[in-house]
Design goal:
It is a single chain. By secondary structure, the chain is mainly α. It has one domain. The model has no long low-confidence stretch (mean pLDDT 89).
């Protein structure tokens, strides 16, 4: 893929991620974490950080910013997901993609809800308050996990199928086949 095509593709993913947060959707079912994993696995950790943070910043600029401590936990969790995407880069198979996606979703849930408890005012700053925070966030976790698994499957699946079809229908292969039929 040429450098220009790579950036066009990544900017399309960036737009998808921004619109995925802005358009009506099930709470927490967005393509952001999947974008972090996918871009890290195929284009590198640095690209993942840039494009995920760009998508978050652009969409947060429109949606509205919130507590910087909680925002830091959200952005930091996505940073860690991008880091975990490097495992997928070295072990690209359905199992590793599923495990890393599931692990990233759990990590996001634990870190961001800890920050909500620690820096917010909704829950008492006790052990019971922390457990209440995690308990109340379970429906959001379910949505996040479903969204993360869905978008990760779409990103990785469509990309791999595209690569496979390009390999199967490359001009050199078609030329060899048509020469054989003559």
């Amino acid at each position: 893929m040429s450098r220009t095509n790579k950036f066009i593709f990544l900017f399309c993913l960036l737009a998808l991620a921004v619109f995925g947060r802005l358009l009506p959707h099930i709470w927490n079912a967005t393509p952001i974490l999947a974008l972090s994993l996918f871009v890290s696995a195929y284009f590198g950790f640095e690209y993942s950080i840039f494009f995920v943070f760009a998508a978050m910043f652009v969409s947060d600029s429109i949606i509205g910013f919130y507590s910087w401590q909680i925002m830091l936990s959200v952005y930091g969790s996505l940073f860690l997901a991008g880091f975990l995407g490097q495992y997928i880069k070295r072990h690209k198979n359905v199992g590793s993609i599923a495990v890393v996606t599931f692990s990233s979703s759990i990590l996001f849930f634990l870190v961001t809800n800890f920050a909500v408890w620690q820096f917010g005012s909704m829950y008492s700053h006790t052990w019971q308050g922390l457990m209440d925070c995690y308990t109340m966030a379970i429906p959001f976790f379910r949505n996040s996990l479903v969204g993360d698994l869905f978008y990760t499957s779409v990103f990785f699946g469509v990309y791999e199928l595209s690569i496979l079809s390009i390999k199967n229908f490359s001009p050199s292969k078609n030329t060899a086949l048509s020469a054989k039929n003559v």
